[in-house]
Amino acid sequence: MNNIYCTNLTSYKRFKTKEVMVGNIGIGGNNPIRIQSMTTTDTMNTEATVAQAIRMINAGCEIVRITAPSKKEAENLANIKAELKKRGYNTPLVADIHFTPNAAEIAAKIVEKVRINPGNYADKKKFEALDYTDESYNKELERIRKSFEPLVKICKEHGTAMRIGTNHGSLSDRILSRYGDTPLGMVESAMEFLRICRDLDYHKIVLSMKASNTLVVVQAYRLLVSKMMEEGMNYPLHLGVTEAGDGEDGRIKSAVGIGTLLEDGLGDTIRVSLTEEPEFEIPVAKTLVERYSNRTIETPITPIKKYAINPFEYNKRKTNEVLTIGGSNVPRIMADFSLKDNIKPASLFALGYNYSVTLDKWNISEMACDYVFLGNKIIDFEVPGTLGLVYLHKTWLTQKDKFNAYPFIDSKEYLNNVETHAKLNFIYVTLDQLSRAFIDKIKNDKTAVLVIDTYHPHGMTEQRKLFNELILNSCNVPVIIGRAYGNLTDEQIQLYASTDMGALLVDGLGDGIFIAAENCGSDSLLNSLAFGILQATRTRISKTEYISCPSCGRTLFDLQETTAKIRKVTSHLKGVKIGIMGCIVNGPGEMADADYGYVGTGVGKITLYKEKNVVKRNVPEKEAVKELIELIKSHGDWIEPQ
């Protein structure tokens, strides 16, 4: 397989897909990127579902998805649709189907679209390793065809659209045994069902590849598009990061996964999956999409002729180790204090450094940044030994004898052989300054760390090209990814920076990040954002990770309340991944990616997992959080909060 997965690696252009009509809404083709979400109410509660759907629609939701776990819920979709129409709403509805083909067949005659999950529709998941010959595997495909073909025929007859939605957490044992727990397995899971549709001349299809791991999300969608390109297909793409969580973490994680794909022109409709009320997902999705509604490129970026990066696998770019940057070190974080008027010890609190006057010492948190860019501002008090101070070169010359002070040198100054630090120098460069003379000098400088920047409207691709040039020239200098922003809301800076920097980090590019933001939130927010981006790209773990589903009509407890309770008692467990699932649909699969799992398996009943293995079944909900803590303690992952 070649490494082509998008229309252009340096110029923004959407991957042209065929148009699929879902009721009166077109997905793909020349349509704008559509925004959708999913109700969290009991589907049998018509009034509550209709009321929530209306709140979603009024917030800007263009397609409403509703779970139909059994025949009775599928049948009740007719009442929901009728009531919405009675109130003047004709927004297309989607039935979400997992284990029940007969429910899908009922729903396909009522609503405008059905979503089926290939891993659950005709298979069961027991985490069994199965050994297939080609003949026995083909027999399994025939079995699937018999189960799936009736739905395809109904959809074709009624003009109903379909999403074939692969979920990383629910790949079948058959797929896992054949392809492993991989993005390729996700793609093949969908392709098996897609081939049946094509055999039956049914093409009203949208495809998705969802996971809670952003790297898996990006790689799976890219593989899918590459596969479609090879086979002459162009079905629309539904983008999403499943179980993204809530609050800041959910927004960052969603932006890393969805935004990375949007940057390359992939995606025709998106759903941001937050553990919050569904109408709160819509503004986040709008903010992500609006960046691409009118992205005009006045200055084209020279095309990439030879792409040195494998877009389908994570491979960390090899770099020199310069003090604590590059090599095998985790990505470092540089904060920006260059615009501050008055820097005091208390100013560093927002960066994870707390000074105790009584003890006369610094307390350093897990989310303490590594360097602070000061420009021409001078710090005149003792700082923690773990914090590097970075000054513009002329100012550094006055501070060069101080501990932990390092110069920030413009590329022109660098080529003019200005005085440098003996161990670490930050060299500022943009793509247009990456000359042959510069590369020849920097590649032999074992004290150099690049700080890259961009002012291009499609800056991510410009910076990606810069990385590509370094790799092609065997230049292993470490790189801090720098981006400047101004006058953005808190949510905008979170989503924009996560997209711009996350898109590089998921490809193994970058040894650190530097967010320079003017009038874009507090120092504390920006510091937390930087650590959140690294956490979401799984390049530096500094806190507990929650794989939390967004809730739906299948959910068996209050997910928002429960997630908050679990966060309250476990948020100090750095590096521990906890899955919080409302039902069994994707629970076991996502538990395989989490260290511990909390899954609703009955009304008021919770099943606890260690990875993909059940440890305790049917724990009363009132006792479940306490039991989860005991489970974590029994495996040696618990530490007492300080």
What topology emerges from the helices and strands here?
Blueprint: E1 20-22, E2 25-27, E3 34-38, H1 46-59, E4 63-67, H2 71-86, E5 93-97, H3 101-107, E6 113-116, H4 118-121, H5 134-158, E7 161-167, H6 173-179, H7 183-199, E8 205-210, H8 214-230, E9 238-239, H9 247-263, E10 269-270, H10 281-290, E11 321-322, E12 325-326, E13 332-336, E14 353-356, E15 361-364, E16 371-375, E17 388-392, H11 393-399, E18 405-410, H12 411-415, E19 425-429, H13 436-442, E20 448-452, H14 459-472, E21 479-486, H15 490-505, E22 512-518, H16 523-536, E23 545-548, H17 559-570, E24 577-581, H18 587-591, E25 596-602, E26 605-610, E27 613-620, H19 621-634
Parallel strand pairs: 3-4, 3-10, 4-5, 5-6, 6-7, 7-8, 9-10, 13-16, 13-22, 16-17, 17-18, 18-19, 19-20, 20-21, 21-22, 23-24, 24-25
Antiparallel strand pairs: 1-2, 11-12, 14-15, 25-26, 26-27
Helix pairs in contact: 1-2, 2-3, 3-5, 5-7, 6-7, 7-8, 8-9, 9-15, 9-16, 14-15, 15-16
Describe this structure in words.
The chain is globular. By secondary structure, the protein is an alpha/beta fold. The longest helix has 25 residues, at 134-158. It starts with 19 loop residues before the first strand and ends in an 8-residue tail after the last helix. It has 19 helices and 27 strands.
Short précis:
The chain is α/β, with parallel strands linked by helices and 642 residues long.
